[in-house]
Structures are given as C-alpha cells and as structure tokens.
Amino acid sequence: MKLGTQGRGRVIVPQGIHLPTMRAIAALLAAWLLLAIGSLVFGEQTIAFPRAWRSLLGRGASDEIFIVQSLRAPRLLMAFLVGSSLALSGAILQAVIKNPLAAPDVIGISGGASVGAVAFITYLSSHVSIHWMPVASMIGAVAAAGLVYWLAWKDGAQPLRLVLVGIGIGSLLSALTSFMLVFSPSYSASSSYIWLTGTIYGSTWVEVTVLLPWVLLFGVLLYGFKGAMNVQLLGDELAIGLGSRVQRNRMVLILISVGLAGAAVSMGGVIGFVGLIAPHIARKLVGPVAHRLLPVAALTGGVVVAFADLVARTIFLPLDIPVGVFTSGIGAPFFIYLLYRTRKQ
Amino acid sequence: MEARQKNAAAQVLGLAIGVVLLAASAAASIRFGFQTISWSDMMGAFTHYREDSMEQVIVRTARLPRALIAISVGASLALAGALMQAVTRNPLASPSVLGINQGASFAIVLAITVFGWSNGQMLVWVSFGGAFIAAAAAYVLGSLGRDGLSPLRVILGGSAIVALYSSATQGLLVRNENGLQDVMFWLAGSIAARDLQLLAMVIPYMIIGWAAAMILSPQLNILALGEELARGLGQRVGLIRLVAGFIVVLLAGGSVAVAGPIGLIGIIVPHIARYLAGQDHRWLLPYCAVYGAVLLLLADVLARFIIMPEEVPVGIMTSVIGAPFFIYIARRELRNR
Lengths: 345, 337
Fold this sequence. Notes:
The complex is a heterodimer of chains A (345) and B (337). Chain A is an all-alpha fold and 345 residues long.
C-alpha cells in the first residue's frame, strides 16, 4: 500500500495518470463492448451483428427489433448495473472490515435484502409500484446488517466473528424466506422463487429504470467518500491521529455498501459471490487505493455478470440457466481458496 | 472442553429421563394438532382399531407415521452431527452446516426434475449418492484443516458449499414451476403427510447407521484425545474417519430422503447431550439419539400451532431455534481461541 501522510495531516495518494489503472479500464471497456455485441447477437435466435445493430436502432424486421430492443438490450444493461453494484458493495466491505472474505452475501446483507424483496412480492406487489421494491429490499438489508453487526460487536467487530454471525443470521433469514414462499399463493411464490435464484431473466426497461437511479445515487455518494475509504485502510489509530472521523465514515461507507447491495438484490436476486470475486480481481489489477479500485471493481463486476449471464443463457440452449448458479459455481471454490490462502491471519 | 466423568447410575438415569420425555413428546405429537385426539381414541387406535372412528383413522394414517418419522429422523440427524463433531473435532460441524443435507436434496431434485425419476427406492439411493459426494467435499475441506485451516474457517468453507448447492437446486427448480409448491414444502424440511412406506425404505439403513455409530463410539473417545495421540495408541485414524463418514452419509442421506433437509438439529443436540452426558461417546451417542428425537417431535408439535390451521415446515422451526444457538457457539469458540 503506497499511502503516505504529509505534515498537515492530509492523506496523500499518488496523483497523475496511473498507467495500470488506465490499461485495466481500457481492457475492461473493450471486454464489455465485446460482451455487449455477443449478448445482442447470441441467444435462442442468432441475429448477425449488422442486423442486430440495425434492430437496436429500430430499423429491421419487427421480431428482431423486439428481441434486441426489448429482451437483450435491457438484460445486458441490467447485468452490468447489478454486477457493478455488487462489486462496489463488496469492495467497500472488504476495505472497511479489513477482511478479504467480506462480501454482501457472506455477511447476511443479501439474505436480509431477499427477505425484504420476497415480502414485497408476496404482500405488496399487487397494489404498490415496483419502484418501491428496492426500498423494501434495502430496509431488509439494513436490518440484517445492523443485526449482524450488533451481534458480532464486542470491543469492535472482529472480521471472523462478523462472518460467522453472518452465516447464522443467514440461515435464519433463509428460513424466513422459505416461510413466506411456502405460505404465499402459488403465482407469487413462483415469481419470488425465480427472482431468488439470482437471475436477470426477463429484465425489461422498467427494471433498468428502477435500479439506475439508486446505483447513480450511491455511486456519487461513494465518489464523495473515496478519500474516507482510503483512510479506513490505514487502521484506526493512525486514522484517528490524522483527525479523521473514522467511526462515522465507516458507518456511512457501510450504509452505502448495504444500499448498493440491497438495490442490486431487489432487481437481480442473489447473484452469489460477485461481490466477493470482482473486488479481488480489481485489487490484483490496480491495488487497494480507492479512487483506482472503485471504478475498476465496478467495471469488473459488470463484465463478470454480463459474461456469466451470456454463458448461462446460451450454453445449454434452449435452457436459460439462472446466472446465479453460474457465479456460485465459480465463486464457491474461489471463496474456499481464499479461506485457505488467508489461513495464517 | 473439560472432561466430565459421571458414574454409570447417573448416566442411566439421564437416559431414562430422556426416554420418558421421548414417550411424552411422542404422545403429544399423536394427540395434539388441528384435531385433538382423546386418550381413549389414541389407545383405541392400537388396541381395537375401528375404521369408522375419524380420530382413530387420523392416529393411524397421519399422526403415528409422523411421530415415527420425527423420531427416526431426529435421532439420525443428531447422531450424524455428533459423529461429524467428533471426527472433525469441530464444535460447529453438522450435516446442514457442511452441506451434506443440501447435497442430498440437490441430488433428489436433480433426479426428479431432469431425469423424471419418481420411484421412492431409487430416490433413496440418489439421496445417499448426493450425501456421499457432499461428504467427500466436506472431507477435502476438513483435510485442508489439518495443515492450518482452523475449525471456524472450515465452517466458512462449508457455507460456501451450501450456497453453491442451494443456488444449483434453485436453478433446477426455476425450470419447473409446476409442483413448485410441493417441492418447496419438502425443501424447507417437512415431516407432514409423509408416507410410512418411505420410512420403511430407509429405516434399515438408519438402524445400520445407529448400530455402527455405537460400535464406533470407543474409537471416537480415543480420537477425541487428538490425532497424534490416537495414532500413538495404534488407532487407524484414517479408517475411523472413513467409517464415520459412511455412517454420516447413511444417516443424513436417509433423513433427507424422508423429510427433506431439516437444518441445525445436528448442531444443537450434540451440545445439549454433551452438557448432560459428558464427553464419553459410549454415553453421548445414545443421549444424542434420544434427545434428537425429542427435539424434532416437539418442534413438529409447535409447528402445527404457530399459524393454525396451516402448518409451518418443521425445518423452518429448527432453523429458527438453531440459528441463535449456532451464533452462541460460534462466539464461544472465538472467545476460547
């Protein structure tokens, strides 16, 4: 970590253009562009790129326009938004809790968001606009995060305890979720269930417009607090010595993280392990400094989910495998590897 | 863990109390529910069964099978938990925490949705197969433990395996919306409206598992001294682990085939039993079997009353009881390190 301090107590981070960051961003953008093309072209019906492009602009055969404009394009954007939010959420948690194992689904935040969202689908969705769904899900996420944090608190929230309490609360929350599923009418049970699996299947522009404002809001907030996130990396004593309001900033950062995860889960379900993997990839690429890490992590998360979704919906055609199955398949072994690698801590 | 030695009389007394509790909760399980059954009808159903008495029919066809399933599943899951905790020397190990239950239920859902199998006998074997694969994964995870993965980290790894299995199970079910409600009830862990035939198919394997666990118990006491010491005393540690693993597969796989993945029994009961019986596995295991049956019976009775006339799947009840327990033990472990 190349963070230094100067006499007046300001944290100095290296200024100027950071070549690896630029390279990483360029590579990720290129990867995303390729994925975008792939996502518009491939599917149950392959539409060659020139025609897909024309359909995107609204010229071409009407069925192809429908497929590209109403099915594939919103799904692609959704993948990107959900992936970025989860990645940012995980990146914040890993920095604040100072634990490489932290991620919204590991410490119970996603579980809380699921309870909120399933409650919304079961009890409210018939008479309240879907625009409120992220709010329901964020309320659940905040409640779960608060509970986990409170139970894990004892002279500070020690990382391993946080994760273990998160698992315990997680099993309680999933019991709650299945309780609601078992006793809801079957049409809402099956829509809840599809949603729970972590899938962006059937995303429309409505869902995109529901999610987008929240991602932008928390993204901008996070941009304002990126300096505070760097200070968190220094450790409490040094940070307090520098006059930083460590505890307050930590609380704000955690709230941003919970908000991002809650919003993402409300629209995409629990797409497992993205919030764990993406920040790790990003940190390998550009290191831990927040103003480099955050954009790269967001792009990585977006690319990971877009890629996983493209593979999941094309590899077993005509089956459309939920993207969460695919990310868990990669993420779970990676998590165990991380556990093993960090065992001496 | 302090070594608590008790004399045989006290142990027998504790076990006898457990058996009395077991009889009482079995009677409660048969009597109470949406329809309360009188003592005379309950006894009558066994002594002079009359098909024109609705109460007696309920006892014979619904309540009694249910109580028997609760007893055998509760005992099996508790024993499986105790074996896993003994072999891994990990107080949080249990079939639901390390993914064995979820592996078995994934295999069953796979067999039903993808291959269209519905034959009960076949599904029992599928369940064993799924439990076996999951146990192998847990074993690999546990062996990472021997060069430095602490017990708590093994539990974290288990949670990742659980997450993987549950997302794969959900992925299979999303394809299959018809009948989702039925499967949901089973997947939440339920012993309501189960066929006694299903129990008849797995009970031989469970009994083998119970007996084998008892035969293994002196060896578990030696293993509890530590791997090095056990080896020094001439124990074939690897073999003991392997045998214990197979028993866990039989017990957990059989339970899931009958009742779905009922969580956290395997973690709660061994701790209660250890508190009552001490560390000697020759006593600990029977305690686990008896008190595991009692716990599942009582949880099931409770599950009928919470939102009468509907019933909560009993797996949800055990999760709600077990989660605080899990957190309590996890916190205690962290403190003891």
